[in-house]
């Protein structure tokens, strides 16, 4: 099948299905510019999407790759993880070639966003699908006349068979804020991170590529522009408290997020900022 892009409905949401070389597939919803599925040519689904996710726009969809902007988690007065997750985005460009399919979605400020946050802005999210990888690039354009400061993330939910069996490499030596343990700052000394309890860590200035070792769902993870990496798993109790996750949801997901999670990034009037996350099936 040749690479291409088609408009579909996915759980009632307007979405695009990208087909890449070898039958790779990705689905991105116009709500939130949220990637909701990524399948490699071997047919394996690589992203976690909760079977209890809400698709009616009343809450962000639990899973896939939510775009968090202009606030990461509760680091400010805005709704948690900002306000673009439930916003309608529109298709700006779409194209495909022999070995890729690519789509750019965009959204901008309006009365609703300015009531919460006084800044004119335009966001573009570009998804590029190739045989064994996806690239997501977020562009933040300051279309106003004053500087704009933001935090945020590409909050990727990676699917794993059993989170207790995975190891994440590449964060040794980084300091992290441990939100599951009173926000203390800790230096990572392990070569591999194992998930054995609730884990909610923002690793600062984490610039090396990461490797999620997870049997037949192993993934290489790289980022640019985003300074920080967030690693999140709610574990048993937090998972039980989240209505849009099944009781065993925690076991099948590990969020590895390209983030601006420590200090806000400032974009000058008329300027643009770019951040990218690449996921490669290995
Ligand atoms: O990125 C980690 C985190 O901020 C966690 O603290 C956790 O609550 C998660 O994101 C999910 O946030 P959400 O608003 O989607 O429930």
What does this structure look like?
The protein is mainly beta. It has a single domain, classed as Beta-galactosidase, Chain A, domain 5 (Distorted Sandwich), CATH 2.70.98. Helices cover 5% and strands 47% of the residues. The chain is built from two helices and 21 strands. It has helices at 111-116, 235-241; strands at 4-10, 13-19, 25-29, 34-39, 67-68, 90-97, 100-108, 121-129, 133-142, 148-154, 157-159, 167-169, 175-178, 184-187, 192-194, 199-203, 210-213, 219-224, 228-233, 253-267, 272-281. The strands form three sheets. The protein has a nine-stranded antiparallel sheet with strand order 6-7-8-9-21-18-17-12-15, with no helix packed on it. Strands 5, 10, 11, 13, 14, 16, 19 and 20 form an eight-stranded antiparallel sheet that branches. Strands 1-2-3-4 form a four-stranded antiparallel sheet, with no helix packed on it. The longest helix is centred in the C-terminal third of the chain and has 7 residues, at 235-241. The radius of gyration is 18 Å and the shape is globular. The two termini are 22 Å apart. The structure holds 6-O-phosphono-beta-D-tagatofuranose.
Mean pLDDT: 98
Number of helices: 2
Order of helices and strands: EEEEEEEHEEEEEEEEEEEEHEE
What is the distance, rounded to the nearest whole angstrom, between the alpha carbons of the first and last residues? 22 Å
Tell me roughly what share of residues is in helical segments: under 10%
Which small-molecule ligands are present, each listed once? 6-O-phosphono-beta-D-tagatofuranose
Number of DSSP E strands: 21
CATH topology: Beta-galactosidase, Chain A, domain 5
Number of domains: 1
């Amino acid at each position: 099948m040749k690479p291409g892009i088609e408009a579909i409905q996915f759980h009632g949401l307007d979405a695009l299905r990208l087909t890449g070389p070898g039958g790779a597939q990705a689905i991105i919803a116009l709500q939130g510019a949220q990637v909701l599925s990524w399948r490699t040519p071997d047919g394996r689904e690589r992203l976690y999407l909760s079977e209890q996710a809400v698709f009616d726009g009343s809450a962000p969809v639990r899973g896939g790759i939510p775009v968090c902007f202009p606030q990461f988690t509760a680091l400010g007065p805005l709704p948690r993880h900002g306000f673009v997750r439930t916003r309608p985005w529109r298709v700006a460009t779409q194209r495909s070639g022999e070995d890729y399919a690519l789509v750019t979605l965009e959204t901008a400020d309006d009365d609703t966003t300015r009531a919460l946050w006084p800044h004119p802005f335009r966001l573009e999210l570009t998804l590029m699908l190739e045989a064994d990888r996806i690239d997501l690039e977020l562009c933040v354009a300051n279309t106003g006349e004053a500087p704009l400061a933001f935090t945020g993330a590409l909050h990727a939910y990676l699917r794993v068979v059993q989170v207790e069996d995975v190891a994440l490499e590449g964060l040794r030596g980084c300091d992290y804020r441990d939100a599951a343990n009173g926000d203390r700052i800790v230096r990572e000394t392990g070569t591999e991170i194992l998930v054995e309890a609730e884990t909610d860590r923002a690793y600062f200035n984490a610039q090396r590529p990461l490797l999620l070792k997870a049997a037949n769902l192993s993934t290489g993870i790289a980022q640019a522009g985003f300074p920080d990496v967030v690693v999140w798993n709610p574990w048993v109790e937090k998972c039980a408290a989240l209505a849009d996750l099944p009781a065993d949801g925690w076991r099948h997901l590990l969020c590895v997020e390209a983030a601006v999670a420590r200090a806000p990034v400032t974009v000058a009037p008329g300027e643009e900022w770019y951040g990218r996350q690449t996921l490669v099936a290995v």
